[in-house]
Design a protein that fits this description.
Elements lengths: L1 H135 L9 H10 L1
Helix pairs in contact: 1-2
């Protein structure tokens, strides 16, 4: 019978040990496991949230990059248009300046031609007077015959 009493005592000690463990040991272990599970769940949700934010940020970056490319293309296009306009304006100014220079050169040439004609008239008038002197064998007075000489100049 000693075995039965020993078995019963062992069962009582085991039950006391199980009760003690259930009351004092298991709650901190369960609490630690629950906290650990909560931390893991929070970490997983934070990782999912970070992945979602990363995807959103990548989409935003792609959108802004496309917008920036479009804006830079527009700026380049505008700059090319402005450059073409500046070149056209410079060509216009150069053509105007060339026209002015050409007109001034024509006017100068006309003045020189006019002066040359006038000088030629003077020389022809002088030659005509000398010719008339030689024909008449006497000197022609330019002051007396000024009207005649003026008519001769205009006819030439």
């Amino acid at each position: 019978m000693f075995i039965n009493a020993s078995l019963i005592v062992q069962m009582i000690v085991f039950l006391i040990l199980v009760g003690f463990t259930m009351k004092y040991v298991w709650p901190p272990i369960i609490k630690a496991l629950d906290e650990r599970a909560a931390k893991i769940a929070a970490g997983l949700s934070a990782a999912d949230k970070a992945k979602a934010e990363l995807a959103g940020a990548e989409a935003q970056i792609a959108k802004e990059l496309a917008q920036t490319k479009a804006e830079s293309g527009k700026l380049i296009s505008d700059a090319e248009k402005r450059a073409a306009a500046i070149v056209d304006a410079a060509k216009g100014r150069a053509e105007e300046e060339g026209a002015k220079i050409l007109a001034a050169a024509k006017a100068d040439a006309e003045q020189q031609v006019s002066r040359a004609r006038e000088a030629l008239r003077e020389q022809v008038a002088a030659l005509a007077v000398k010719g008339a002197e030689q024909i008449l064998q006497k000197e022609v007075n330019a002051g007396v015959h000024a009207e005649l000489l003026a008519r001769l100049k205009t006819e030439l």
